[in-house]
Every structure is written in structure tokens, then in C-alpha cells.
Design goal:
Layout: H1 7-17, H2 25-34, E1 39-46, H3 57-77, H4 81-91, H5 97-102, E2 104-107, E3 114-121, H6 124-146
Antiparallel strand pairs: 1-3, 2-3
Length: about 170
Amino acid sequence: MLGGDGRQAVDVLADEIGVVHDNGLVGGALAQQWEEPLYSATSREYVEGRSTGAADINDTVQASGLAAGRVPSYVLVATTGLVLQPVIDELSLNLSVDQLAEQLRVVSPPDTVIIEITATAATPTLARDIANAVSSSLRQVVTEQLEPEPEPVATPTPLPTVDANGTPIPE
């Protein structure tokens, strides 16, 4: 048995297998060598505000403010089953919603109406496909379920003004 603080045993073992070590970093380097590499891909969505009327500057400013206020909610929705289950189905992933959510980073850079969706996966192609599919699914959920286009309101056809006899009065 070797004496000392145990460091001698590591030194002897390292000498026997030809490994040079520096304060325990060898173990980390060896472990890192055996880990599968991970790849990331990012997709970005621009959250656009909808103007309710003509292209009036006030409507545009108000719509932009509403969009900015909704971005944090959309970031949270992006990692829910509402968005991720269609991605799992589309890409035939053998993952649960929670497992897929762990592979995602969804953020909005400060003072923007941009949502960045970063996916991490074992291959660059899979990372790209997941990021793009989540982006597409989020867009669909927002436009079709959370913020659907309002149904057009039927405006009544103006009736002509008539006199007591029912004769139209020209305007």
C-alpha cells in the first residue's frame, strides 16, 4: 500500500499508463473525450403586432406595443405541449414533451420582439430540424389558437332614405 495523501497512487498509475496529469484535469478531459458531441441550431421569430384598422401611425404604434407585451408569454408557451407535441409527431421523435423542452432554450433578447429558439441535439441536422419545427409550431399556435384573426364583421348595407310614399330621396 502506498503512503501519503493518495496522490502518490495517482502518480504511479499515471506513470504506468503514460498519462500526464495536472490537478485532476485528466479525468475531466478523458470523460469529455467519451461524451457524444452536441450541436445547436437557432431559429428566430419576429412577433408582429396587428393593426386593427387602416395604416394609421397610432394603430401601428399601439400594435407594436401589444406585440412587445405578448412576447414573454409566447416564450413560455414555446416549451409547452401545445407547441412541442406537434413537433414530436412531425419529426417522429422518441421523446416526451418534457425531454424535448430540456433540449431547448427559448429567449427574447431585451427590448426586442424577437423570439430565439435554440435546439441542442446529437446531429446538426436534427438540431436544425427541431429549432425550425418548434418555430413553425409556435407561429401556428399563436396565429390559430392564441391570437386568431378576428372574424370580419358584416357591415349593414346602407338603406336609401325614402319619403312617406316609399320613393327614394336622392342624397
